[in-house]
Structure formats: structure tokens, C-alpha cells
Amino acid sequence: MHSREKDNLIIGRLFPGEEVVESLRGICQKHQVETAVVVSGLGQLANFKLGFFKEKGNYLPQDFNQSHELLALTGNISLQKEGYDFHLHVVLGDADKKVVGGHFIEGLVSVTAEIVLLKTKLKIKRQTEEKTGLKGLFLEEP
């Protein structure tokens, strides 16, 4: 992977075989990201896992083993006490132009991935909510 930053905008390129979340973690460390919004993500992935939030901690994971075009990647990244938290969603299309989407858990780049992040000084705190079991987003006071 490689990345550059200017005016709080980070553009990164991931290469074949790189794992998306691990690569994003490396980019965030390199550019000292505390909070970022994923502006866009394009490319092609293979061997990826998506989830659908059903109930407390259950994301109904599903593996996909064929290459799909990464049509959209969105979400946010925040530095928590235990490390980076990635809340990412994707839309991917197969060779027949059928799409799948959901909570992005993991995936390997098959051709390329071009990802744009916008750094912000807003602080996000992730906290598990009792009722839903979801790690909810809370904005910290300055």
C-alpha cells in the first residue's frame, strides 16, 4: 500500500493480496489518524466477508470467494483505547452485475483498492449499548 496526505485528506492505494482493514490500520497509524470519515473506496476485492447486524453481537457473517468490484466503501474510523475501530459498509458487484452489500468485516484486494479518508479532530467514543449490543457512536465533548 501507499498513501499521501494533504489538508487532512488522505488518498491510499492498496495492492493485490493486501487485507483491507489491516492496510487501513497501517494508513491510519502512518498519518496519525484519531478520527476519519471514509469518503470513497473503489476497486476489486476477493475472499471477503460481510455481515448483517441482527442482534447483540451477531452480525450474521457471510463469506464470498469470487472477485467483486468494490462499488462503494463508506464509514468511519476512530482511535479507541484498545486500538482502531472500523465501522465500514460496502456495496460490491459481481461479473453478472448483481450486487451485495453490508457491514464490511474483512477482505483481500484482488486488483486494486483506492480509498480516500478525511481526517477530523472530532472525537468518537464507541460504547456497547445494553439494549441492542451495538457499539454505538458517541461524540466526545471538546
How is this structure best described in words?
- It is a single chain.
- The protein is built from one helix and nine strands, in the order E-E-H-E-E-E-E-E-E-E.
- With 142 residues, it is mainly beta.
- The chain has a single domain, classed as Hypothetical protein, similar to alpha- acetolactate decarboxylase, domain 2 (60s Ribosomal Protein L30, Chain: A), CATH 3.30.1330.
- It starts with a strand and ends with a strand.
Write the layout of secondary structure elements.
Blueprint: E1 2-6, E2 9-14, H1 20-30, E3 35-51, E4 62-64, E5 68-80, E6 83-93, E7 99-120, E8 124-128, E9 135-139
Antiparallel strand pairs: 1-2, 2-7, 3-4, 3-5, 3-7, 5-6, 6-7, 8-9
CATH class, anyone? Alpha Beta
For the largest beta-sheet, the strand count, sense and barrel status come to: 7 strands, antiparallel
Number of helices: 1
Percent in helix? under 10%
- In the residues, how many domains can be counted? 1
Strand content: over 45%
Give the radius of gyration.
Answer: 15 Å
CATH topology: 60s Ribosomal Protein L30, Chain: A
The end-to-end distance, rounded to whole angstroms, is 33 Å
Number of beta strands: 9
Please name the CATH architecture. 2-Layer Sandwich
Tags for this entry?
60s Ribosomal Protein L30, Chain: A, 1 helix, single chain, two-stranded antiparallel sheet, 9 strands, mainly beta, 142 residues
